[in-house]
Amino acid sequence: MIRTYFIKAFFELVIIVLVTGCGHPLPVDTTYSSHRDHTPILKYKDHNPILQVRVVHSGNEPVELSEITITMGGNATSDDIAGIQAWYMGQSDRWALTDDPVGFGTVLSFKPTLTFTGQQKLLADTSYFLITCDLTGNADLLHGLSVQCPGIKVNQHQISSNTSDSTLFIQRFGVSVRKHLDDHVDTYRIPGLVTTKAGSLLAIYDVRREKSRDLQGDIDIGVSRSTDRGNTWEPMRIALDRGTWGGLPEKFNGISDASILVDDKTGTIYIAGLWMYGVLDANGHWIKGLTEDSAAWAHQWRGRASQPGFDVKETAQFLLTHSDDDGQTWSEPVNLTRMCKKQEWWLWAPAPGHGITLADGTLVFPTQGRDNHGEPFSNITYSQDHGRTWKTSNPAYSNTTENMAVQLSDGSIMLNMRFNPNRGNLGDDNGRVISITKDLGNTWTEHPTSRHALIEPTCMASIHKHPYRLEGKTGEILFFSNPNSKQSRTHMTLKASLDDGNTWPEKYWLLLDSNKGRGYSCITSIDENTIGILYEGSQADMTFEQIPVNELIHGDNTGQPN
Question: Measured between alpha carbons, how far apart are the two ends of the chain, in Å?
């Protein structure tokens, strides 16, 4: 009788322990899932997001989360990782730290499986944790991470995920070349990128010192230089700056929308930029008496902010500077406005990105403007005497603006143009305008892929011809980058064409950044096996990445390094 009583009591005690967990109820009403956005992990940027953990607790009593376990995939090594952190984000599901995140745990060592320990009380609601990563300065730009969360611990009980991430993509490593408030600058915009004859990379951009908005404003053209394939970048230099020219404050002497070009024959590097002096009013008249306190503002593409004529008080000016020492110093600019602009045009301006050298040595800048009715157009501007004199072509197409050019295998020039009617157009006829010229822009023919092959949200894009050698074979690939969307500047994507731009097969697409950025980009060839891209992404104003050509052509286009 006594023995039966003790056996019964023992089993009751076991049941109580199992149910309560020694004072911690089983969290049967707590579940979690994990999620990743397809964004790069950047050097010289703190707290790159690599995983979001969503915990849902529907019970009446609070619970305590004490562990988050993650597994690390990809080809990253301990030499790449400076630290990995876990943060409690409350109810914020942002793919970035909030202004007041709560640290949950930090791991300095790099292992295939990592566990963060902490104490975070969770109420009946949905809570978010963000895992972030810092890279070392020596991180290999051809490496990346793929992170998962196999389990968390709540009230001392292990919980496994009720969802799985079916696409184990790699978050690529890159470089934050410029970000918000670097050197006390508000915003960096409008990337250009080239490789010099010495092998250096030169990145150019708007230095928008006070505000993020376009001209008119205190804006200069900056240059960042790398001599190690983009792994590190020298301090910013200024290539174009009008200062307080003509007695006006710098906010009324802005320069923007630059393009950079390397003369492949001489090695001279050119940067073209658009300068606005003062402001024209709604009737196209120059406003007198502007001071630092004046609030007047106008943009060269809006209204009558740039007008027919040549004078600085009539129309925006086309400036050109050059460097003969691999981008370390820059000349005083020359003004090409009177040399090239038609007097009746309202505007003639560089198109941002980079220019090209043709096989015969002709230098070609992509340019744009507004005709005698103020309507936008795209064209090219070229020099056949290594930059001493320049000529501008006839318009390639109407209602187009920013553009870039490549020389095709038959010697013709293909111009790839932003098309204003694509704004809001979600139909099958959304697409970049593509035109061909065989006579330096005197005449143009629309390409069969025009207005449907390469979609856009009406945004600048980059096109670049890359000579390659793969498996003993040589050839040329066209690379194209832009936000791969018809309606938003998201999904920055690199695409390749192996047939002179006639087709752009999806198997040759590579997603770089799924999230929203400002969307501009520029591509260059680092060497015959590697390209580089500088773009306005979601994680930095100016993001740089290296892409092996073999990965894009023979990879699996999910971001998996080959």
Answer: 72
Angle at 103 between CA 102 and CA 108, to 5 degrees: 165
- What the block records as the tokens of 241 is 């700056």
Q: Which pairing describes strands 433-437 and 473-483: parallel, antiparallel, or unpaired?
A: unpaired
SS3 337: helix
Q: What DSSP line would sit under 14-69, residue for residue?
A: HHHHHHHTTT----TTEEEEEE-----EEET-S-EEEEEEEEEE-SSS-EEEEEEE
How many helices (H) and strands (E) are present in the chain, helices listed first? 3, 37
Give the separation between CA 172 and CA 561, rounded to whole angstroms.
8
Q: How far apart are CA 165 and CA 36, in angstroms?
A: 8
Domain ranges of the chain: 19-169, 459-562
**Its pTM surpasses 0.90:** yes
Distance (Å) of CA 205 to CA 257, 364, 519, 540: 8, 19, 13, 13
Which residues are designated catalytic?
402
Q: Kindly report, residue by residue over 432-476, the tens digit of the pLDDT.
A: 999 999 999 999 999 999 999 999 999 999 999 999 876 777 889
Residue 217 in contact with residue 275, Cβ under 8 Å? no
- DSSP for 400-429 reads EEEEEEEE-TTS-EEEEEEEGGGTT--STT
Structure tokens at 25: 């109820």
Planar angle of CA 39, 40, 45, nearest 5 degrees: 120
CA distances (Å), origin 500, targets 46, 356, 476 = 41, 16, 8
Q: Which CATH class is domain 19-169?
A: mainly beta
3-state secondary structure of 250: helix
Residue type, 242: R
Cβ(256)–Cβ(206) below 8 Å: yes
| Pairing between β-strand 353-354 and β-strand 255-262 as defined by DSSP bridges | parallel
Beta strands in 166-316, from DSSP E residues, in sequence order: 171-178, 187-195, 201-208, 219-226, 237-240, 255-262, 269-275
Edge-to-edge strand order for the sheet containing 187-195? 187-195, 201-208, 219-226, 237-240
Which two three-digit tokens encode residue 207? 């230095």
Tally of CA atoms within 13 A in the half-sphere of 60 that contains its CB: 0
Render pLDDT for 394-437 as a digit per residue (tens, 0 to 9).
999 999 999 999 999 999 999 999 999 999 999 999 999 999 99
| Contacts with 155 (C-beta within 8 Å, 6 or more apart), sequence order | 21, 24, 25, 26, 27, 63, 64
Omega before 487 within 30 of 0, i.e. cis: no
